[in-house]
Amino acid sequence: MSDLKKAFSDLKNGEFILIYDSDGRERETDLIIASEFMTAEGVKRQRKDAGGLICTSAPSRMWKKLDLPFMAELLAECYNAHPVLKGLAPNDLIYDTKSSFSLTINHRKTFTGIPDADRALTISEFAKFGKKCDSMNEAEAREEFGKYFRAPGHVHLLNSQPGVLDDRAGHTELCTAMLMMADMFPSATMCEIMGDNGRSMPKEETMKYAEKHGLVFLEGSDIIDAWNKRDKD
Fold it and tell me: What would the pLDDT profile of 136-150 be if each residue is shown by its tens digit?
């Protein structure tokens, strides 16, 4: 079985996989799981074994229907009222042209929202809501979303680009592409793997982590190749 096929199978079974973006981009490896399968143990694993920022992706069809803004665009609309925000614009990202960050949310059944169980509930319910959202019109979806979630919160949402890997090659889109090719709801929860030196763990070390724990390790280039060939196979 190829690494890609095993990754698809593992994602469908609620397992973690590792994805490295590229040497020419962030040069980071993320520990990833399909959001619908997130549990308190899963959040704990990302928090302890990875240690970066835990984020959850939203497919374009979902964030567009819900009107979930990109955070950079939301802040730009406030430049006149709060001029300091203009100076904070993320216009110097050497590895990207646009940050995928959107809102932060908590499920309304959480208390503070930060414990592992709270974040797991927010993440899994966000994916569950995303599936339901497909059958709603915009007004219904937005009203229902407000019934179940509040903002700000402790789960960072990432808006995936409409063209996925045709538009951007960040972890948000790499994860979205994997789930789409696996015929799953395309929301993933990812976390950068950090080293003990406080920096992103080098690829060679994350590959050793994957081997030690029996997890699939994928290069971003392999996912992009599979994405580009998907309609030709």
Answer: 999 999 999 999 999
